[in-house]
């Protein structure tokens, strides 16, 4: 009886797929409920690694879902306002270690990119790109370690675009091509102010 009950209780975990675990990635809070409705909040609460297609389907059943404020294809609708305490500060050249929890693999394609949240547009080239063979196999152990734990280098040219927290995210995007399931996980960051060297010189001049 107990084992039946616990298998029911833990059933959503079985559906788990993937999320960035380090640095901290966007999570739910009160802002996502305002932006996306309670149904989406509950779904992510039950399984924070759920896939976008599942959420878009659920959204159709919630009259409070507002596509204008909730873009499920940008960080799964998770909001900056709920994550302002977890903003990373990076400067060009920083090497950032990233860890992915890849609970259930679905072979496909993936990338890690900087995304401008206002335009929902990729900024520059992907920092990581897998054009095939991402997340093969049946369990997390089947997935090559370098697909789950890797580093990216913060590129030049983000100094003004990403100076304000909330304007940019680092987004991990993965599509299981046969499963037709999209996963997204976002890290909030801002770029550090320009180095003191230039400012000092300007003062002395
Ligand atoms: Cu799946």
From TrEMBL:
Keyword Chloroplast: no
Signal peptide location: 1-16
UniProt keyword annotations, A-Z: Copper, Disulfide bond, Glycoprotein, Metal-binding, Signal
Cofactor: Cu(2+)
InterPro entries assigned: Cellulose/chitin-bd_N (IPR004302), Starch-active_LPMO (IPR052282)
Domain Chitin-binding type-4: 17-189
Sample GO molecular function, one term: metal ion binding
Gene3D superfamilies the UniProt entry points to: 2.70.50.70
Record PANTHER family: BINDING PROTEIN, PUTATIVE (AFU_ORTHOLOGUE AFUA_1G14430)-RELATED, CHITIN-BINDING TYPE-4 DOMAIN-CONTAINING PROTEIN-RELATED
Family as reported in the entry's similarity comment: Belongs to the polysaccharide monooxygenase AA13 family.
Name of protein: Chitin-binding type-4 domain-containing protein
């Amino acid at each position: 009886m107990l084992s039946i009950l616990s298998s029911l209780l833990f059933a959503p975990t079985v559906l788990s797929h993937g999320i960035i675990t380090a640095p901290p990635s966007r999570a739910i809070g009160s802002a996502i409920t305002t932006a996306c409705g309670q149904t989406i909040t509950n779904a992510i609460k039950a399984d924070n690694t759920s896939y976008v297609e599942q959420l878009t389907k659920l959204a159709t059943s919630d009259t409070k879902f507002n596509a204008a404020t909730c873009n499920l294809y940008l960080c799964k609708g998770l909001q900056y306002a709920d994550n302002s305490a977890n903003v990373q500060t990076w400067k060009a050249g920083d090497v950032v270690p990233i860890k992915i929890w890849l609970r259930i693999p679905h072979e496909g394609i993936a990338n890690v990119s900087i995304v401008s949240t206002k335009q929902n547009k990729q900024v520059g080239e992907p920092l990581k790109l897998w054009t095939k063979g991402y997340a093969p196999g049946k369990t997390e152990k089947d997935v090559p370690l370098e697909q789950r734990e890797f580093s990216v280098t913060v590129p030049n040219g983000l100094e003004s675009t990403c100076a304000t927290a909330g304007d940019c995210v680092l987004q991990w995007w993965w599509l299981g091509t046969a499963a037709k399931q999209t996963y997204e996980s976002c890290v909030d960051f801002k770029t550090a102010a320009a180095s003191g060297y230039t400012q000092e010189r300007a003062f002395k001049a």
